[in-house]
Amino acid sequence: MSFSESFNKHLWQNNLIQPGETVLAAVSGGPDSLALLDLLDQFRRIVPFTLLCAHYNHGLRKEADREENEVREFCLARGIPFFTEKGRVNEKAAGRGLEETAREMRYAFLVRTAKEERAGKIALGHHADDQAETVLFHMIRGAGLEGLMGMKTITTRDGVDLIRPLLPFSKKEILDYVSHRGLKYAVDASNEETVFSRNKIRHQVMPALEEVVSDPSGAINRCAQNVREEKRLLDSLLAPYIEKLIQKREGDVCLDPELFDSDNPVYAEDAFRIRIIRESAKAAGMKKDFSRKHAYDLLALFAGTSSGKIDLPNGFEAVKMQKTRLIRRKEDKQKVQDGLFNPISIFDKRANDLLKKNHVFMAVFENKKDADAFSATLKNPCRYTYLYDTMKKNISIRKRLPGDYVVLKDGKRKKLKRFFIDQKIPSEQRDKLPLLALDSEILWIPGLFSRKFDIPRNMHAEIHIAAEGTIK
Q1: Contact 24/116 with Cβ under 8 angstroms?
Q2: Which of 125, 172, 381, 430 is deepest in the core (most CB within 10 A)?
Q3: Which position has the higher pLDDT, 355 or 5?
Q4: Number of CB atoms found within 10 A of residue 243's CB
Q5: Residue 319, by phi and psi: left (phi above 0), alpha (psi -120 to 50) or beta?
């Protein structure tokens, strides 16, 4: 089987390109990306799809403009629409890594162009040798399973699929193909410089490994494949636990207290807790920079007995308040305070609509059956039944106000602020709690306090209020 036939078979078997799709090939002009473009150009004669080409000129080398023109001429001869952009990487990289900056600018251009041209996929030229270098680089940096899996054949970036059709093939196979096809490609001299970490691995570490095993690249790729298979199995086994132990509510990702309080021997394993914490960080939106140290810092906080907060990268934070453990964006913590819980009368026909609009996990019902049905949808349901006579008093759901108080079992009043302090409720959580209030008296704080009344002789009706218990 020829190289192009093996390539086409790989595309078919993995459904990488479907008829009628638009695919944007990222082409630098080097042998890998040029081979990819040539192979895709042939494949579109078998499976009809729209092929586009994008070239990002980093402006870092004197040959850059010439290489851009060579890719343009290649596309012109093949009738492939060509898109290019020239960046000022050196300017943007001030105080940052040149490689990382160039990569970010290149991918931003590719994704932007794909969206503008309605291309659902971007084809990249990574091959098996790149995969081996990536896994090795991740390993020496202490990566976990995610890093040892290496690059995936299909990933998504900002809503656009990134496909890597050359990933199963070696650099030698690609160079042989390019030679056989007579393709003229560019040689980036910077790839030979060992000042960059990846180049050191390519030119120094991999050759040294060849003295130990005949095909280190193939061995590392097989290792990565084994890790991917084990990871898929682990993910399937953990899925029910993740669904049970992680809840997302209006930007806050909460961990079930059972993870830290249960006698379940599985939950007691640090490795299990760390995995759940990592999944929680992902659910909150942390896509990168969440390190092993961050995970263990959160484990210490969440498994401890004290309340606290830890700042995380990229504007996130982890918070422990009583039984509540959550990860969120820092700006989200203002959502409840900024105008939420304006007093809502429990007798207002719009009460539930207003509560839902203001993200309050509470609802009001005139009959017990509806309240039971609503409670069944909650993780930690709390209930309060208010019995009233013909006089509908000023009872509302709101946040705390100056002068609020509770009446304890012995009939004595206590200021709400002092009550919160005695209950060790963190100050930042106090403004978030939904309260059921009769003027300045607080009748109910879901999961924390409930005022009991004697049943009035001339009871006229009852109101049932159900809520998610934010505190246990």
Answers
A1: no
A2: 125
A3: 5
A4: 9
A5: beta
Identity (one letter) of the amino acid at 162?
L
Q: List the end-to-end C-alpha distance of the chain, in Å, as a whole number.
A: 65
- How far apart are alpha carbons 253 and 316 in whole angstroms? 11
Helix or strand holding residue 405 (H, E): strand 405-407
Mean pLDDT score, 273-281: 94
Average the pLDDT over 412-437 and give the result.
85
Which positions ≥6 away from 28 have C-beta within 8 Å? 55, 56, 67, 71, 125, 186, 188
CA distance 25 to 4: 17
Half-sphere exposure at residue 283, Cβ-oriented, CA atoms within 13 angstroms: 22
Return d(Cα 84, Cα 56) in angstroms, integer: 6
Assess contact for 269 and 316: CB atoms under 8 A: no
Q: At residue 223, does pLDDT exceed 90? A: yes
H helices of 304-422, where? Answer: 351-357, 368-375, 416-422
Sign of the CA dihedral running 352, 353, 354, 358: positive
pTM for this model (two decimals): 0.69
Tokens of 400: 């705390």
427 phi, psi to nearest 5 deg: -60, -40
**Gap between the Cα atoms of 91 and 98, Å rounded:** 10
The SS3 assignment for 462 reads strand
Tally Cβ neighbours within 10 Å of residue 466: 24
Say what angle helices 3-13 and 171-181 make with each other, to 10 degrees.
Answer: 120
> What single letter denotes the amino acid at residue 21?
E
AA identity, residue 126 = H
Q: What is the CA angle 395-401-407, rounded to 5?
A: 60
Beta-strand relationship, 308-312 and 246-249:
unpaired
Return d(Cα 428, Cα 433) in angstroms, integer.
Answer: 10
State what percent of residues in the chain have pLDDT above 90: 50
Report CA-CA distances (Å) from 9 to 51, 173, 254: 18, 16, 45
| pLDDT of 101 over the 80 cut | yes
CA 50 → CA 118, 317, 386, distances in Å? 10, 44, 66
